[in-house]
UniProtKB/TrEMBL annotation:
Pfam families (UniProt xref): Phosphorylase
Keywords for the protein's UniProt record, in alphabetical order: Allosteric enzyme, Carbohydrate metabolism, Glycosyltransferase, Pyridoxal phosphate, Transferase
Its job: Allosteric enzyme that catalyzes the rate-limiting step in glycogen catabolism, the phosphorolytic cleavage of glycogen to produce glucose-1-phosphate, and plays a central role in maintaining cellular and organismal glucose homeostasis.
Cofactor entry: pyridoxal 5'-phosphate
Lineage summary: Eukaryota, Fungi, Dikarya, Basidiomycota, Agaricomycotina
Catalytic reaction annotation: [(1->4)-alpha-D-glucosyl](n) + phosphate = [(1->4)-alpha-D-glucosyl](n-1) + alpha-D-glucose 1-phosphate
GO terms under biological process: glycogen catabolic process
Modified sites of kind N6-(pyridoxal phosphate)lysine: 685
Recorded family membership: Belongs to the glycogen phosphorylase family.
GO CC aspect terms: cytoplasm
Molecular function GO labels: glycogen phosphorylase activity; pyridoxal phosphate binding
Name used for this protein in its record: Alpha-1,4 glucan phosphorylase
Domain of life: Eukaryota
Length: 837
């Protein structure tokens, strides 16, 4: 039957409700309305920033219509939902994406033009939402976009950091300096404060087992803080479905502690409120390292506890018994950061819902799914037991209980294998003892996956080998990060000209191929079409000019747009080997210096771009930046070479900068030591935009090559199985670099000798190669230089190069995040698309 209208007169309500704007006149009306009432401004004093805010607020109104409708229908139909728990969401800018997804870009462009603004200028006012470090956070953002586009009931949960990833400045000496990123200072039109949605979260205090024959305990005392919800709308592409990303902010439970205040301790009272607010004040800027900091653990618990409380409240509204929880809820753990959700759900089920241990464990292990994103040992999270006992006493008890039962079952399967028990224990022995979060995530989840074929194999054969032997192989899978390639942002939005060329060539509307990226394959025959190739190349050229213009206006450098654009943009890390790249640049420079004028005539000019941030405490990574900046200084000024080789380090890498850099690249570098880069995600974005790939046989590079064919990529370097042996030799039978790789030795010596200034400064960086060389630069340098030469050679034949470029784009269908999210939905979460009428 028809539901009863909840209050007042239905017709009055319905007549007054707004719908999504579609006409230019209603768009200008809502824009002007926000100028007048939300911003309290007038046409006389409205600048581009004000215009951006008015446009954003009016787009938000439209999103809210769909967002409300989506939420209502999910509530009514109560389908199984998936929740994506990620400590990072690297969203970038929203306005352009929202306009494209709503299909309103043209109407808004026209509307703001009539009001005296240009849509490009307005879009350019937006600050990135940079609540992430790199690939892991950007992947989460792409997955939200794809979930909504695929009409899947998926919500994200994260933290509303007051400060996102730091802003990177480069000092005159070439050092990275960090400045805070107060992204909320201009107000954020994309979030909706839900001050009515809040939960109390406890820290510290005492846990006492009841000892009444049940596994129950009480947890009391300590500090209580408030988690308050902020909602961010996630519009799907060409659909009404608009999902939600809920971010938590921490607040003191009371403005301040009245007891201390009355006792005359004003500072103490305010301090307590500061310590609550501190929890969500800043994103940890470390990628691939863990430091065991108490505040980080607090962030993790605060976020998982609030998210679970919220999920549970929603589940309870359906009115089903708690044992059916996994039929309605799937929770994806993005790396081990949210692993505390496992003992937290156990705590709720046992202490609050009074469930027996085995029922609780059954529910937990059918609810969670764990994605691993790295096998690097320094990135595997471990928390000191004393810290856990202090901050989360009840959770530590539960972890001990989980461990005891788990090890008993291991002992049953492998009787007497004490070594194995030690290896698999959730608690690592030592001073202090530590909790191994990846193991807890693994045994507490229904399935575990890696993010590319090679990486998933490595997960199964290295870090979780014992767990595969114990639990069986079928629990362990792979979902290749078809990720980063939300086809919308990473083609249609960042490369509009290429997008239109594709639509007109394929004679299909972009609404179709943007949601089925395998359609790009139909471009293949056009490799033989000269006019098409010309247009393809012309677009790349214009994208290069757009980048050059950007660099000219922001940094004041003039870039040779007739050169090959060679790009490496990612976090600075030894395993990603930016050092190999810069040493390669120096090698090229030295080679050019020794060439005759006649030889130089045959050289194709090259511009090398770097961008990326280093963790603030990562000394070697920061030295690499300094070296790049100082090498650039010398070679860009050298009259012998500057027409043939330019080098730029672009400061403050961000999603927005990536959107300008990626479409402009002829070749991009993904040159990690084999077996270290789990997937990589920018590699796919470059290829989607017709850039060729220079890389090692690692991560998703391998699957990209499988798709486009090895003749269309440039591979070099040792393979994963060789790495361990090579490292062993470095340690036990080292060969001097002079002997092993004279070309590299020469480059190192020139740096040491002060060719780029600062003679002594780079020694610690150079010594990582001279001693130990853990990332195998000396093993891969010669083949790297040879691969660079092959790239030069290939670039001389522009016809063939453009064909390679077209083939590369055409074969990127697999790497759509839509494909990846569908794999999670079907093979992991078991959720279905919901049509929002
Ligand atoms: C990154 C991985 O390093 C990268 O290879 C991968 O593409 C990305 O996650 C998305 O899966 N922090 N960031 C990562 O792993 C961790 C840990």
């Amino acid at each position: 039957g028809k539901e009863k209208w909840p209050r007042g007169e239905e017709k009055v309500w319905k007549d007054a409700m707004r719908d999504v704007d579609t006409e230019v006149t209603s768009i200008t009306k809502s824009f002007v309305n926000h100028v007048q009432t939300s911003l309290a401004r007038q046409p006389y004093n409205l600048d581009n920033l004000g215009a951006y805010q008015a446009a954003a607020l009016s787009v938000r109104d439209n999103l809210l219509v769909n967002w409300n409708e989506t939420a209502l229908q999910y509530t009514r139909k109560a389908p199984k939902r998936a929740y994506y728990l990620s400590l990072e969401f690297l969203m970038g800018r929203t306005l352009d994406n929202a306009l494209l997804n709503l299909g309103l870009k043209d109407q808004y462009s026209e509307g703001v033009k009539k009001l005296g603004f240009s849509v490009e200028d307005i879009l350019d006012q937006e600050r990135d939402a940079a609540l992430g470090n790199g690939g892991l956070g950007r992947l989460a953002a792409c997955y939200l976009d794809s979930s909504a586009s695929q009409e899947l009931p998926v919500w994200g949960y994260g933290l509303r950091y007051k400060y996102g990833i730091f802003q990177q400045l480069i000092s005159p000496a070439g050092d990275q300096l960090e400045a805070p990123d107060p992204w909320l200072d201009n107000q954020n039109p994309w979030e909706l404060p839900r001050l009515d949605v809040s939960y109390e979260i406890r820290f510290y205090g005492q846990a006492e087992r009841l000892g009444d024959g049940t596994p129950r305990a009480t947890w009391s005392g300590g500090q209580e803080v408030l988690a308050v919800a902020y909602d961010v709308m996630i519009p799907g592409c060409y659909t009404k479905t608009t999902n939600n990303l809920r971010l938590w902010e921490s607040k003191p439970k009371r403005g301040f502690d009245l007891n201390s205040f009355n006792a005359g301790n004003y500072e103490g009272a305010v301090e307590a409120s500061n310590s609550a607010a501190a929890i969500t004040s800043v994103l940890y800027p470390n990628d691939h390292t863990t430091f065991g900091k108490e505040l980080r653990l607090k962030q993790q618990y605060f976020w998982t506890a609030a998210s679970l409380a919220d999920i549970l409240r929603r589940f309870k509204n359906i009115g089903k018994p708690i044992t059916e929880f996994p039929d309605y809820v799937a929770i994806q753990l993005n790396d081990t950061h949210p692993t505390l959700a496992i003992p937290e759900l156990m705590r709720i089920l046992i202490d609050e819902e009074d469930q027996p241990w085995s029922t609780a464990w059954q529910i937990v292990t059918n609810t969670f799914f764990y994605t691993n994103h790295t096998v690097l040992p320094e990135a595997l999270e471990k928390w000191p037991v004393p810290l856990m006992e202090h901050l989360l006493p009840r959770h530590m008890q539960i972890i001990y209980d989980i461990n005891l039962l788990f090890l008993q079952s291991v002992e049953k399967k492998f009787p007497g294998d004490r070594d194995r028990l030690g290896r698999m224990s959730l608690i690592e022995e030592g001073f202090p003892k530590q909790v191994r979060m990846a193991y807890l995530a693994c045994i507490g989840s229904r399935k575990v996956n890696g993010v590319a074929e090679l990486h998933s194999d490595l997960v199964k054969t290295t870090i979780l080998k014992d767990f595969v032997e114990f639990e069986g192989i079928s629990k362990f899978g792979n979902v290749t990060n078809g990720s980063e390639l939300t086809p919308r942002r990473w083609l249609d939005q960042c490369n509009p000209e290429l997008s239109s060329l594709i639509s007109s060539t394929l004679k299909v509307d972009k609404a179709v191929w943007l949601k089925d990226l395998t359609r790009l394959e139909a471009l293949l025959p056009f490799t033989e079409d000269e006019a098409f190739r010309k247009e393809w190349a012309a677009i790349k050229q214009r994208n290069k000019e757009r980048l050059a213009h950007h660099v000219q206006t922001t940094l004041g450098f003039t870039i040779n747009t007739n050169a090959m654009f060679d790009v490496q943009i990612k976090r600075l890390h030894e395993y990603k080997r930016q050092t190999l790249n810069i040493l390669g640049v120096i090698h090229r420079y030295l080679t050019l210096k020794n060439m005759s004028a006649a030889e130089k005539k045959k050289v194709n000019p090259r511009v090398v771009f770097f961008a990326g941030k280093a963790a603030p405490a990562y000394y070697i990574a920061k030295l690499t930046i300094r070296l790049i900046v100082n090498v650039a200084r010398i070679i860009n000024e050298d009259p012998d070479t500057k027409d043939l080789l330019q080098l730029y380090f672009l400061p403050d890498y961000s999603v927005s900068l990536a959107e300008v850099l990626i479409p402009a690249s002829d070749i991009s570098q993904h040159i990690s030591t084999a077996g270290t880069e789990a997937s990589g995600t920018s590699n796919m974005k470059f290829c989607l935009n017709g850039g060729l790939l220079l890389g090692t046989v690692d991560g998703a590079n391998i699957e990209i090559a499988e798709e486009v064919g090895e003749s269309n990529v440039f591979f070099f370097g040792h393979l994963t199985p060789a790495v361990e042996d090579l490292r062993y030799q470095h340690t036990y039978h080292p060969t001097p670099i002079e002997e092993k790789c004279p070309a590299l030795a020469n480059v190192l010596n020139q740096v040491s000798a002060g060719l780029f200034g600062d003679a002594h400064v780079y020694e610690p960086l150079l010594n990582t190669i001279r001693q130990g060389d853990h990332y195998l630069l000396s093993d891969d340098f010669d083949s790297y230089i040879a691969a660079l030469a092959m790239v030069d050679e290939a670039y001389l034949d522009q016809t063939e190069w453009v064909k390679k470029s077209i083939r590369t784009t055409a074969k990127m269908g697999k790497f759509s995040s839509d494909r990846a999210i569908n794999e999670y939905a079907e093979s992991y979460w078991n959720i279905e698309a919901q049509k929002i009428a």
